[in-house]
Amino acid sequence: MLRAFQSLGFAVFPCKWKTRSLHFFPQLIPISNPANFPAEFSSPTVFFQSRCRGLKMSADRSESNSDAASSSTSSNSSSAAMASTTHKPKVSFCQSCGGPTMHVIPEGEEKMRAVCSLCGKIHYENPKMVVGCLVEHNNKVLLCKRKIQPSYGLWTLPAGFLEIGESAAEGATRETLEEACAEVEVLSPFAQLDIPRIGQSYVIFRSKLKKPQFSPGPESLDCALFSLDEIPFDSLAFSSIYVTLKMYIEDVKTGAFKFHYCTINKRPGSSPSDPLGFALDYHLHS
Ligand SMILES: [Zn+2]
Fold it and tell me: Which stretch is the leader sequence (predicted)?
């Protein structure tokens, strides 16, 4: 349930954006020269890369850009290009005329597209935005136990797909009302997390309860406030939630909330809902 990569335009990020140490994430990324990294990254098998430069993948991260939901497991630029030409579009029938689609690379393009065999319409596939709230209350955060697949029975922040006609903040508050029956006020944007290979981009807002009341909605088995040292990190639903909560805890420790941008790449062979099956390739913050 996650992706996006394209149009953020890193070149326009102000220079005050910084990279950040991510030693709290248990990702497994082989490195060619561990000695170049700080002590907290010196484990032979565990460390994170965090860079404040272009989004182009480097060849030494070949296992970091996997995708359980995709046939491709490549990550460097050439293999990524190959993946774009071998990716099979999921659209089988034309959304305009209902005709069957064929999978071809249209003239002047580089990617395989679903093209209607009757009217010729090209069906582009674009990432979906997932919006949610990190609800704070009395030094605790609100989590929901999922009553639906994927990740049934695991904990998540209230979040879901943004719908046409609503802003990201509106969608996040709506999802929180639906999943936790909680009325919240958005305080600030907290994180954007792109998960390119499964086509999702998360936007998470810090928010607070308007009233100290919540209860499980139809998609939740349970809802509860957790103090930061009680968060069930071994029972979280998604990698995006894992990353968000880890960043939040770090910000609470420093006493300064930032806006974070991350790119999460699913690891080869991992389930889309495996909360630890990912590599965090970029982490920038304000
Ligand atoms: Zn058509």
Answer: none
